[in-house]
């Protein structure tokens, strides 16, 4: 979009091109904002490419760095309409179309900022006066407003016979219509010029823009959506290089053009050409301006060419267009596997890696998924296929500069692709409360903390059997080597004859997070177990079978085991209790201590520091040495958080 075609609020923006890690430049931008200008810092190539679409471009130059800074080079090559040089150290000014003499930036940027703001405001005023002069000139040249030159003889047409009134009406209505349209155009043109004049002379400005109105795109994408939104496909990734004497590696951007978008009738097809474990993403961007604090958004995702490990995402705190982001990274994201496993995570602004996981769980697998989110300040609520999944509270990224969605598939052997459709963005009133969990950050946090401390019980455990709010991983015969059935007396777990691999039913708590210490209890019915083992696992690490296991057989023999990440088994303790067809097993994980009780009697407590955190726990069945097959019934499962010792 050219400068002249942009709305007035975008034409008044000021762009500052600088190195991403230039702290002096960041301080200058903040000071200029405090003085009343709409300023964005072009620390990425994408933002710097807008240098010809803003009122003025400030380029901050350092003699040793500017040639190796892509945003600065990109901004200068755009030939901005009004480009101002600012020098951090004395240097020869590079050849460019500079509008002014150079300014000098010091460690205290206030004076430099004041001088720049005064110059830019004067420039805006001059531009406004020029536009108004053009308007007046155009008004004078409109044919229907000109008077007839008195020196030119006027030849009167021969008079014609008087016709009926209907004849005159037919002749005059086109002229009346043209005059009305011209008057309205003139009125609104003058009104816009008046508004611009007031905005230049006002320090505090509130602008109603497209960000304050609903936006719907059945087929999103720059070439697919005729609505004119700013759709962006990220084209950079981050690599790190270590510098001698510096403890933290320095992030560097590198080009990544692996994402292809294809417009189709029912959506936009995103395809990842290589590096399948990275997201093929599209961003509903905000041109460097923050979105409102309160809005709702959604996107529908349909797998086209994917493996069972493919993952969709919906990010609602995208920092790619943030002018103060050094790398363009940082986001709060709902990630959803095609198998129905989901998690809510925060991506680092520096390395684009997951630095915090808030919650996770499972929904019923489907042919396509509608991912939805409500942003209510620091409180964010997420849903999948209109089913509420979680609310998180985090103010790490105060503003959102875009809404992103995409696909990755780490196990794909051919370019993975997915169809995205029915995007919507709807601003919400400030008073919007959303779900009860999102009524306020303090209240929501108190609710979450309270729920985390309450014991959870399920008379019939398992994904399809437990009607409660816990997150049980659905059973897959292919992956977990068992089949399950919900019964009135518990969860029946069947393992086929010949199976030599343990069968597992993972439990992830109510939101995927575990307290440091906890107690587990479950009732085991071993009448048809064929002397196979059954019990509980604790401190599971999420890598293979790594963790601890406590199992028992119907003959009364019990064992405590430790598994490493490759499945290696190490016996930590073993013993024997009276023979029964059913038992009540209880385990306690307290720091490095793992204890086991059977039918209310403690039989073992061991010290082992191999695993002290918990990714999940499990109900587990293990075949005997003859692999005869078994049926075990689990019931009355209880998970109880324990205080730290």
**Biggest sheet descriptor:** 8 strands, antiparallel
Shape, per Cα inertia axes:
elongated
Structural class: alpha+beta
What is the CATH architecture assignment of the largest domain? Sandwich
Please compute the radius of gyration using only Cα atoms.
33 Å
N-C termini distance: 63 Å
Could you please say which CATH topology of the largest domain applies here?
Answer: Jelly Rolls
Poorly predicted regions are 144-154, 191-208, 238-254, 435-448
- Measured by DSSP, the beta-strand proportion falls in 35-45%
State the CATH superfamily name of the largest domain: Exo-inulinase, domain 1
Distinct helical segment count: 8
* Number of separate structural domains: 3
Query: How many β-strand stretches?
Result: 36
Mean pLDDT, to the nearest integer, reads 82
Oligomeric form = single chain
CATH secondary-structure class of the largest domain: Mainly Beta
Keywords: Membrane, Transmembrane, Transmembrane helix
Question: Can you walk through the features of this model?
Answer:
There is one protein chain. The chain is an alpha+beta fold and 645 residues long. It folds into 3 domains: 1-148 and 163-207, Rossmann fold (3-Layer(aba) Sandwich), CATH 3.40.50.2300; 211-239 and 251-445, Exo-inulinase, domain 1 (Jelly Rolls), CATH 2.60.120.560; 456-642, Exo-inulinase, domain 1 (Jelly Rolls, Sandwich), CATH 2.60.120. Helices cover 17% and strands 37% of the residues. The chain contains 8 helices and 36 strands. Strands 6, 10, 11, 13, 18, 19, 20 and 22 form an 8-stranded antiparallel beta sheet that branches. The two termini are 63 Å apart. The model is unreliable at 144-154, 191-208, 238-254 and 435-448 (pLDDT under 50).
